[in-house]
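#structure-requests
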Amino acid sequence: MQHVNDHKSGHLWDPWDFLGPKRRALLESGWTGVFRKHLLEELPVEEIAGKFHETLGRPSKELYTLTGALILQQMFDLSDEEVVRRLSFDIQWHYALDISSESDAEKYVCERTLREYRCMVIERSLEAVLFSTLTDKLVKVFEVDTRRQRLDSTQVLSNMRKLGRIQIMATTIRVFLRCWRRQCKNLFKKEIEKDWAYRYLDEKGFGCFSRIRPGEGHRYLEDVAKELFLLVERFKGNKKVRRMNSYRMMERVLGEQCEMVSDDGGDRTVRPKDKMKIACDSLQNPSDPDAAYNGHKGQGYTAQIMETFQRGEVETTKADLITYVGVEPANRSDGEAVVAAITTTMERGCKPEELLGDTAYGGDSNVESAAEEGVDLLTPVPGSAGHHGTLELKEFDWELDESKPIRCPEGHASKERYETKKGHYIVVFDLETCQGCNLRSRCPVKITSRSARLKYRPKKARLAERRGYEKTEEFRERYRWRAGIEATISRYKSQMGGGRVRFRGLRKVRFAVVLKALGLNIYRAGRAVETYLKGLTDPQRVLAAISYLFSLFRALGGVDKPAERTFRAREADIIAKILSPPLSTFCRVVKFEGATLCWPGGSMA
């Protein structure tokens, strides 16, 4: 049965009245206040509620509490056991999740239940819904300027061990033998030799693969590859065995790590592939088949992170937030993330107008695709400009408008420009001028007895124009703000534990990475509130509070059906960033035209 508390209708009495004004101010101004005031009611619990019947069955755990606990677990990088204790005894969690009851039903959840609810979220890919919904809410509340953003990637390790080639093949064999012994114990004893069982199933025997000397690695690799091939061939005709995931994994490793050869007698055998021929999407560990390899970053996954940034002097209340998180295997190129990031943010209404990235994102196709969506993608130009010692196209004064001439490095204008049937462009210069030019030996313009022509493709011209702009002071001034995302990634890894997550598999890793990014956004929003409150003087706090109260009273007086309405502290806490603890303790109950405003603290004088 669905169990969903109503967090919109307030309590008759403030359940947090036992807290003093200073402790209450700490709860209201930090991440706890941000979560409770702005995010708790936005949690998409209806997606999980569909798993339970509306009236029949045992009541589920309170869905707002469990969904919020899953976010806070990744935000603080906690194990399931630690989540149980935080939810039971941590007053910050109770305030953020609006848990006022002291019963075990409200404040206790066992580890198994926590895992089951997490599986519900992962099955429905709700981490993306949670991130987009709550982040968009923070963008709106804190009036975050999303016109300027920056994009970068980082490596994320799953909860798997880094294995070499020998250990990958040996571990795959071990997993298969264990599964086969569990399913067909009698047949296992007949088919498998004792030395194989000792080498791959016994802990002492399997330890030999971790004690291989550097000079013996190639011989061991060949032996393990042959044993892997023998196992695959032995059970090739057994339909029951072929349906096992562990057997299909052996086939995958055999195809990725080995190549078939024939000996002098015509018999087929295998030998290990050259390591340079192994694909980046090959199996890295049988415990995590989705992980891949990147020559620059290593094994695991790649997280694409895009965040807002502000130039120059910025108001302290403006929080920079992560607007997009993408998680893919490590072998995926960074250049593939640009279009996905722009499309996702455009659908949510937080698309950037200026996007900064490193060289990996700056392919010509990405720049053109971004320009079509109204985004100025600013990156260094990838690749080299040309041969050393020759003039580069960027040294010409380019005009992409075909009606305007192009000027060479000597300042001579072109006479004509036209497009060929194959899509090339031809720029014609004056023959006599080019023949007498001092830069003729280095110039890319081809001079014949009849003409002086420069042949290029539009892509080459665009790259030349970008390389020329890259040398300007304006580019350096705009691009220097990209470096700030390195600090974001560093904090994401150190504070949120995003460098290595506690899960395996793409879907589970994506769940953890996305919610950790959401947790960092919540931290930043809470920090912005704290900074704003510290910067206000007492007169500013009082004036802002009085202004809000009068506007609230006017709204209440205009209700069609005047009635006594009770607004507890949480409803009025929407202005916590402008109300000071002294004022909140001063006001207790204010009556205005049949409406009652309840506030924690003493009575109104």
